[in-house]
Design brief:
This protein has helices spanning 2-18, 80-87, 135-153, 168-180, 202-205, 207-216, 222-232, 261-274, 297-320, 326-334, 345-351, 354-360; strands at residues 23-24, 38-43, 50-56, 67-71, 90-91, 100-101, 111-115, 160-166, 190-198, 277-278, 281-285. By secondary structure, it is of the alpha/beta class. α9 (297-320) runs antiparallel to α10 (326-334). The relative contact order is 0.11.
């Protein structure tokens, strides 16, 4: 008689380990929002990877309201930034440093689900910080997390939509592929997808689009744009890994050796023309002091870390290619992108506040 009891106990432990967690969050926004807010962790297909989520049921209380998943891109950006800055019931304008009620919140009509993924992003966990995430693995694990959410809230079979922006233009197609190919009895009832400002291919959607966007919005002259077309149209994105599987180190090889000195001169002109503007909202100027503000340690340190990473990649490349000039190429590449004010630290400070983390019950 002992064995059945032992087996039942083990099965119970496995269920506890693999089930989603759920907590009802109380007064996250100091009285600005009275609706229900839930948060917790979702289990994925990889042991030790847990995705943090926030769920806000529809304000209209419609039992037939669909579920809308929101994903920010990056890759590596927290989806909570889209929730707090764009689509949630309480948002904050850029650099306003305070929340306000959003009259156009998406969860007025839909059950809004926001997930931080893949593992290691935001409050989400990964058992291996050096895990090599790919878009395929991301899609598989995100689907597992969604199923875990639907089971936890008893929402299986409800109409489901997927939305997102930027690199979610890659996330979403991979996720939907896994949903379509899923033959399990717990299939997600996908009804549609929404991709805003989606990135699909680095070579066209990153470096080149910056020049085109600046030109068509009157920030770059016709002369500069024509020079860019003449000298830089060969240019893949300088931060995009080379698609060359012939060597084991192919993922560490980046493109700067293909960038000519003339092309970099033109890109520096473009950079200078964009200087001082928020590239996510070009008609508003950066607040004073937002550009590499040494008095703001969060922003300043993130910039130092970013530049250090680029410098290390470039040094590796340049040492492999003796015909390149070490100093000139490093300095040119590091100074390409505009140091605008696209990072609003208000959300960083809010989410890193110990009282907020306690309310969300995150394991940071």
């Amino acid at each position: 008689m002992e064995k059945p009891y032992i087996i039942i106990l083990l099965l119970s432990i496995l269920y506890l380990v693999n089930a989603a967690t759920k907590v009802q969050v109380e007064d996250l926004f100091n009285g600005l929002y009275k609706g229900d807010i839930f948060a917790g962790y979702l289990q994925t297909a990889i042991k030790g990877n847990e995705y943090f989520y926030i769920y806000m049921p529809a304000q209209n209380k419609d039992a037939n309201a669909p579920i809308m998943l929101w994903l920010n891109g990056g890759p590596g950006c927290s989806s909570l930034f889209g929730l707090l800055g764009e689509i949630g019931p309480v948002t904050s304008d850029n650099f306003a440093n305070e929340f306000k009620v959003n009259d156009y919140s998406w969860n007025k009509e839909v059950n809004l689900l926001v997930i931080e993924q893949p593992g290691g992003v935001g409050f989400s966990h990964t058992s291996n910080p050096k895990f090599n995430w790919t878009d395929e693995i991301m899609g598989e694990n995100l689907l597992a997390g969604i199923k875990d959410f639907l089971q936890e809230f008893g929402l299986q079979g409800k109409d489901f939509y997927v939305s997102g922006e930027s690199y979610a233009g890659v996330y979403i197609p991979y996720l939907t592929k896994y949903i379509f190919n899923d033959n399990s009895t717990e299939k997600v009832n996908l009804k549609g997808v929404l991709i805003g400002n989606g990135l699909t291919y680095f070579e066209t959607d990153s470096g080149r689009s910056m020049a085109e966007f600046g030109f068509w919005h009157g920030m770059i002259s016709l002369e500069t744009f024509r020079a860019f077309e003449e000298h830089c149209l060969h240019l893949p994105d300088e931060l995009h890994p080379e698609k060359n599987n012939n060597t084991k180190e192919s993922n560490d090889n980046f493109y700067p050796r293909n960038v000519t000195h003339k092309c970099n001169e033109i890109r520096n002109i473009i950079r200078n023309n964009l200087w001082g503007s928020d590239i996510y909202g070009i008609y508003r100027l950066c607040p004073k002091g937002e550009q590499i503000n040494e008095n703001n340690p969060l922003y300043y340190n993130s910039q130092l870390s970013y530049r250090k990473t680029i410098r290390q990649k470039l040094i590796r490349n340049i040492l492999k290619n003796k015909n390149l000039n070490l100093k000139d190429d490093i300095e040119e590449e590091i100074n390409i992108w505009p140091e605008g004010c696209d990072e609003d630290l208000f959300f960083d400070k809010f989410l890193n506040n110990e009282k907020i983390k306690t309310k969300l019950q995150v394991n940071s």
